Amino acid sequence: MIGIDIIKTDRMQSMIEKFGNKALEKFLHQEEIELVKNYTTAAGFWATKEAVSKALGVGIGADCSFFDIKIYKSEKGAPKLAFSKKLAEKFQIIEASLSITHDGEYAIAVVDLKNSTPTDKIKQF
Questions:
Q1: Mean pLDDT across the stretch 39-64?
Q2: Positive or negative, the Cα torsion across 10, 13, 17, 22?
Q3: Is residue 105 within 8 Å of 10, Cβ to Cβ?
Q4: Looking at residue 65, which CATH number applies to its domain?
Q5: 106 with 8: CB under 8 angstroms?
Q6: Boundaries of domain holding 22
Q7: What is the tally of structural domains in the chain?
């Protein structure tokens, strides 16, 4: 299951300028906020969480909240994903890959999730 999201970084910059840390607390765990270096990092984290919800096919809402997803860094600084027990079990997630990039005014995240019972089987006709 693949999800992708893009966000203009100035949108995140405006949110942070207007609301400060409260803007980040609306979608990030405290451990994630500690990883945020600037508004472009925050924008990449926003795009990541949206991309996860798209990969799951549900969007951000009752089935998948921002706080069911946690971004952390590997020893070498690569972004990684962790999920709440509820989300991992509901969607039977067994593996996750993440790539975040920033270019100019945009942050983009791509997520690839594997689950133990694939739901996206090819339809035949």
A1: 97
A2: positive
A3: yes
A4: 3.90.470.20
A5: yes
A6: 2-115
A7: 1
